[in-house]
Amino acid sequence: FFSSSSSSQASREPPPALPPRLQREDEPHRHRIHHSAMQFDAVWASLAFGALGCLLLLACRRRGGKDLPKAMRRLVVVEPNADLALARVVVEEEAPLPVLKRGQVLIKVCAASINPSDYGAWRARSAKGEYPLPTGQECSGVVVATGGGVSTLGLLGRRVAAFPGSGTYADYVACSAWRLVCLPGSVALADACELFINPLTVVAMLLTARAKRATAIIHTGASSALGQMLCKAAPGFGVEVVHVTHRQQHVEMLHRLGATHVLNSSSDSYGAQLDEKIRALRVKLAFDCVAGDSAGALVAKLPPRSTVYAYGRLSSSYLSAIPVIDLIYRGKKVEGFMVTRAFAKLGPLELLKYKPLSQHTGTTKGCG
To answer: How many CA atoms lie within 13 A of 245 on its CB side?
Structure first.
């Protein structure tokens, strides 16, 4: 390899250059060859892109829907009422199937969750004023038709969990391809029907706590499906939760799920126990879904510069018993909490910090 023989040197020497006159005569010929090669490459590139475009157009056309029925059943609100027992909710037996737009899929609904956030459409008149009003926000099922578009490629026949936002209490629902998740075979459709609202609310709560550098929070309504998910997810975020429920049987259930701090609000010693937990864990953040006097009681108990987030109204549509002096002089706050606004407020940088949760986040029976 390191030989300096004349043969090795000769092999490394460049070929002799042509005389200047021959170089000038050869230049037009080489230019024509180079130009022809560029044209040839451009033609092949155009053909390749054209063929790819044709394949995409064929792949992105509407698919499925040949054996679908002409009509379907769906649950609609005809007349809302603050008293749920008086709200008029009926089943339409001959409702038309949704007409798909590009980028949408048609899902044959297998399961749909009933969430407290659905009650709003039953209790209060819609701002749009469109009645009868289709109800239901999330579901799981099978994609039976697509409206075309790149986003729908490969979705026909897939088992999915979806968040259309409305109309899931029906045999079929249309949904944007960007608002669904394909499910592995190990996940039952009945469990996947509540994959969005509650789980994402839990993540938003814990990310909000982490963004505010809170190591502990209070959560009321702890025996709900969302409360059980929070119980399982919080350890993965390094956040301790004081779970507040109103029945002793729920206290025992939450302890079985792994909760450490569980309080019974109907107990005579609840106030003293809550004070002790707030001091020991230095709690300055609470999430309340009960409303009524619950938020006011939390505001009174928490230290200065604390925040109570109201995200539900299980007992009342109003907040009451909030000590105004705490808001004015002690810097305490009461804010509404909604999952979409929470994610928007957190911003992309905080979301990029989000890492997969630890083994503590396994689902529990009945929690989806």
So the answer is: 22
